[in-house]
Description:
With about 375 residues, this protein is an alpha/beta fold.
Amino acid sequence: MEFIDLKSQQKRIRQSIDKRIAAVLDHGQYIMGPEVFELESRLVEFLGCKHAIGVSSGTDSLMMALMALGVGPGDEVITVPYTWISTAEVIALLGAKTVFVDIEEDTWNINPALVAEAITDKTKAIMPVGIYGQTSDMTAINRIAAEAGGIPVIEDAAQSFGATHHGRRSGALSLVGSTSFFPSKPLGGYGDGGALFTDDDELAERLRWIRLHGQERKHYHPIIGINGRLDTMQAAVVLAKMDLFEEEIALRQAVAAGYNERLKGASLQLPFVAEGNTSVYAQYTVLTPERDALQSKLGARGVPSVPYYSVPLHLQPAFSDLNHRMGDFPVTEQIASTGISLPMSPYVTEEDLNTVASAILSV
Ligand SMILES: *Cc1c(COP(=O)(O)O)cnc(C)c1O
């Protein structure tokens, strides 16, 4: 059994992928070719937002969002310690201070009440993450940000892309949203890539400059940017995958329901989806105090599992300058020490579900 089955998907779309790649080879516009703009239009349609900007990765996209908002030394950016390192890494890269706040016990996403407490006059942005496929309480966070004078909210939707919050798509829930096309994400390519989303025309223009070395037009650079472009080849691959995406979201939700059904008798905390939310289950993650034992027993039965973020960011040596210690973010530490993710993809079979469930129930 694979942890994330990308092969079954490729079997379904191999022909359209081949055709899409051949089209790129034929026209030869490997940088900023027509597929990049075609994908951007598809994404705009999918999210119901005004602008989509294809970029080099989900990490660069977060950094470009911060750059476009002018975040730099002396500024503070609020985010969570329970996330992939990218979210906080880009804050540090720009010389700003990462202000961690703890997560909620049920959704494992940023706790809005703690965001409100952490805001200072140096807060330049808030970066909620939709961990494991469900968005944060974006309604509450947007309200808190507005009440604090309009602090920009950057939604890290790398894992929640495709999910909804009160009927609206993740990525289009705040001033700017960011996603990743890393192969194992809900909408992944065959390499690195990502996208940014906004309804703000001026911000979109700055983001487009930044992804192209700060270039407004040929030979003219009003601001500093980076090489942040999405490859034409990756755009072609993601376009082929877009055709399946809605169906795959439903399949992921069916797989999660299959796990829920089979595991409801086990002494595990199962994933919780908040009212008003749907999840794309980037991961299907359960909590158990017996985490390490469970992982090795599953491994012995050929079932892969991953304890994501088992060392949360505030305890990573890379962030030692923030002087955090064990105990600073108790909910994060609790989830980090008990969470384990089970095999998840749209193509997990009933047989796989039974194998995983019986392995868990026998422990
Ligand atoms: C994967 C991921 C990213 C970074 O995406 P890349 O495309 O790998 O750079 C950022 N944030 C979260 C929450 C992620 O899961």
